[in-house]
Amino acid sequence: MSRFLPTVVAAQAMGELGLFSEERKAKLAPMVEKGLSALYGYQHSDGGWGWWNDDATHPYMTGYVISGLAMARKAGYTISEQVLRRGIDSAESQLRQLVPEPPSPGEDTDTRVYLAWALAVAGKPPLADLEALSTRPNLSTYSVALLALAWQDSGQPSRALPLVEELERRAKPAGL
User: Fold this and answer.
1) Are the beta carbons of 35 and 28 closer than 8 angstroms?
2) How many beta carbons lie within 10 A of that of residue 140, not counting itself?
3) CA distances from residue 102 to 58, 91, 115, 132 in whole angstroms, order as listed
4) How far is the C-alpha of 73 from the C-alpha of 94, rounded, in Å?
């Protein structure tokens, strides 16, 4: 993911700016294919991903990969829909295991929000989970920002607005 996603994002930006020449496209295509091949090979039997191909599945890495695959698809690359579907199924299962109600002290809400955001990016927003997470007290600024993005990606920008306003309230001007 550390090479794959920046390559995809750069290619998409160059395309949107009209800078994606055939020469650049030819140079990036093998890099994207190599990244996809590696990601496909690292998918675990449960559909998720870990830090390596022989370790335990981890919610953060699963979210990272499914969001990256979804971004690649949006950028026009052909991805394995079966790999993405299995990843989404795994992420949904992991999220169900991670979101106890009510929240317990010391829980890692940031990871839960990240996984919910990744599902939204992948086109499968967990609306009930986003709702539950959005109402939790004492969210980190990181979680507030991801929840705003998740609501936006879920096609519900009106749900993102209060979170964006919360981010504005938390902002601390520097150097003024």
Assistant:
1) no
2) 12
3) 23, 21, 18, 9
4) 23
Q: Which residue has the tokens 């599945």?
A: 57
Check if the beta carbon of residue 26 is closer than 8 Å to that of residue 14: no
> Is pTM beyond 0.85 here?
yes
> CB of 8 within 8 A of CB of 68?
yes
User: pLDDT (tens digit, 9 = 90+) per residue, 102-151?
Assistant: 555 556 889 999 999 999 999 999 999 999 999 888 899 999 999 999 99
Q: Which residue has the tokens 């829909």?
A: 81
Q: What is the pLDDT of residues 160-172, one digit of tens each?
A: 999 999 999 999 8
- CA 113 to CA 134: how far, in whole Å? 9
